[in-house]
Design goal:
The protein contains 13 helices and 15 strands. It has helices at 20-30, 39-52, 63-73, 91-98, 117-129, 149-156, 212-222, 257-267, 270-287, 318-331, 347-350, 360-368, 380-393; strands spanning 56-60, 81-84, 102-105, 136-140, 162-166, 174-175, 178-179, 188-192, 205-209, 226-227, 245-246, 293-294, 302-303, 309-313, 369-372. A seven-stranded mixed beta sheet has the order 1-9-8-5-4-2-3, with helices on both faces. The protein has a three-stranded antiparallel beta sheet with strand order 7-6-13, with no helix packed on it. Strands 12-14-15 form a three-stranded antiparallel beta sheet. Helix 2 runs parallel beside helix 8 (257-267). The radius of gyration is 22 Å and the shape is globular.
Length: 397
């Protein structure tokens, strides 16, 4: 690799790719009669359903909204329990609290960084004895790498526990030869279209499911709980064609046509986006083959969408070395990020009773985790700058 430390131009850890087709798609909507709740929403939902091979898709304002709405559609409420991974953004747990449910966590697999099926098995056995089983599990495809859905389904199905896939990182990933979102082993899958994700709509999310009652529930919930469908109204007034009724308490979780048009244009390029991310990830793998780092796991049953390239600094001194590496990258104009501070260690969750040591694998991973730049437009010369800094800081094997 060529050493390029003298260059000071910033290398972000991620950046969206917007081209002329994306701009034209948005401009077309801006010149149309519909900026929101218009035809582009339906088109985008159909495109995602076709891509994932799922029966129903419902566009929402964010993946957080999708997680909330999906749990609500499954009847999660006060008195229920929801388990998720501590190695995720806080939305994976917050969505259960929004429903009035109690949140708990299942520790991660130290190799994949995803929710551990082994730990889930142990926790379910203990919960069964105390009659404290969860109503739902929100499993997270961390960094774009699918978790072991089949194993999780095998453990949860005998108990009637719902499984929601938080696939905010994983649009474009595959599991057992099928796109993430096919929902073969889950009740619903949630995607994110926030600016850093596989495709960018600025903000936005999608609920994919093969269960019509979940799709209908999410659709109602995203629009204030209001329906215009006569068959769902408490009273039908044929002389009032404008009539609508609020039949449930919902939220304004709607996506705009502007976002949907941009996302549809981006979706047409998704395979190219993921393919390039995989090429860049392979370059990192090769460059760090003889460096004392734990590299992202590559599972033979799945293919990651490579939303992140998270390295893990090893050794008893990993916290100090991770900070030194972060500072050195920054000094050379390279941005990196840490994903994630374990949810249970956040101040809000500490007030709910969680403590250090509750989920040691997630805590240990956090101490050495660092996400390196990875995005479609990352130039190989800039990636070489990243590689050179990392190799200069981390001891070689």
């Amino acid at each position: 690799m060529t050493t390029l430390f003298a260059q000071k131009s910033d290398v972000p850890y991620t950046r969206q790719h917007i081209d002329a087709d994306d701009i034209a798609a948005v401009t077309t909507v801006l010149r149309s009669d519909w900026l929101t709740t218009g035809p582009k929403i339906d088109e985008f939902e159909e495109h995602v359903a076709a891509y994932c091979g799922t029966k129903f898709t419902v566009a929402v304002s964010s993946a957080t909204a999708g997680l909330h709405a999906a749990l609500r559609a499954l009847g999660v409420g006060p008195g229920d329990r929801v388990w998720t991974s501590p190695n995720s953004f806080v939305a994976s747990a917050n969505c259960a609290l929004y429903c009035g449910a109690t949140v708990d966590f299942v520790d991660i697999d130290p190799t994949t960084y995803n929710l551990s099926a082994h730990e889930l098995d142990k926790k379910l056995a203990a919960a069964e004895k105390t009659r404290s089983l969860p109503k739902a599990i929100v499993t997270v495809h961390y960094g774009g790498q699918p978790c072991d859905l089949e194993a999780i389904a095998a453990l949860t199905q005998p108990h009637g526990i719902h499984v929601i896939e938080d696939a905010s990182h994983a649009l474009g990933a595959t599991y057992r030869g099928e796109p993430v979102g096919a929902c073969r082993f889950s009740d619903a899958t949630i995607f994110s279209f926030q600016a850093t994700k596989s495709i960018a709509a600025g903000e936005g999310g999608m609920v994919a499911t093969n269960r019509e009652e979940i799709a209908n529930g999410v659709r109602l919930f995203r629009g204030h709980g209001i329906t215009r469908e006569p068959q769902h109204m408490t009273a039908v007034h044929k002389d009032e064609p404008w009539r609508y009724e609020q039949i449930d308490l919902g939220f304004n979780y709607r996506m705009t046509d502007i976002q949907a048009a941009l996302a549809s244009s981006q979706l047409a390029k998704l395979d190219a986006f993921v393919r390039r991310r995989r090429e860049l990830a392979a370059r990192y793998d090769e460059a760090f083959e003889n460096v004392t780092l734990q590299l992202p796991h590559r599972d033979t049953k799945s293919a990651s969408a490579w939303h992140l390239y998270p390295i893990h600094v090893l050794g008893n001194d990993r916290k100090r070395l991770r900070r030194h590496l972060y500072d050195e990258l920054s000094r050379h104009g390279i941005q990196s990020q840490v994903h994630f501070m374990p949810i249970h260690t956040q101040p809000y969750y500490r007030r709910l009773g969680f403590r250090d040591g509750d989920f040691p694998a997630a805590e240990r991973y956090y101490q050495g985790a660092l996400s390196l730049p990875l995005f479609f437009d990352l130039e190989e010369t800039d990636q070489d700058r990243v590689i050179d800094v990392v190799r200069s800081v981390v001891v070689r094997r």
